[in-house]
Write a structure and sequence with these properties.
137 residues, alpha+beta, six-stranded antiparallel beta sheet
């Protein structure tokens, strides 16, 4: 089965680095019916940063605004999902290399059940071309 590719956006929020802060943010999004495709969190000195990739950007923005969560837009990219196999990510990167498009970041993971997923991030000027090369829907 061929890989599926769709455009995604990610957003960041700075919070206090103390117990329960990430839970408050994420549970607020869940309560608003927001589905996240990806989420990461890291410490930044005395603060922490939460990065999220929402399934529905429009709904996410409305819910974050209503909840007073000042998420900032960061980058655009493409979520690739498919059957897990040796070279799955490399096959997609090859399309970009051949098209002369630089990738600014990669997040990849095996999803179990013989599935994989990856998000490739791009600078704004390269997003349209990257989507075309990857066959994004």
């Amino acid at each position: 089965m061929p890989d599926t590719v769709r455009k995604v956006e990610y957003f960041s929020l700075q919070i206090s680095d103390k117990p329960g802060e990430a839970f408050k943010v994420l549970s607020t999004l869940v309560s608003a019916g927001i589905n996240l495709l990806a989420c990461t969190g890291t410490q930044r000195g005395r603060r922490a940063r939460i990065d999220v990739v929402p399934d529905d950007t429009r709904r996410f923005k409305a819910a974050a605004k209503k909840a007073g969560l000042p998420f900032q837009p960061e980058k655009s990219g493409f979520l690739i999902q498919g059957d897990d196999r040796a070279g799955a990510l490399v096959e997609n990167l090859k399309k970009l290399v051949d098209g002369g498009v630089n990738v600014s970041g990669i997040d990849g993971v095996t999803a179990g059940e013989a599935r994989f997923g990856a998000i490739l991030w791009f600078e704004s000027a390269d997003v349209r071309k990257a989507g075309k090369l990857l066959g994004a829907k």
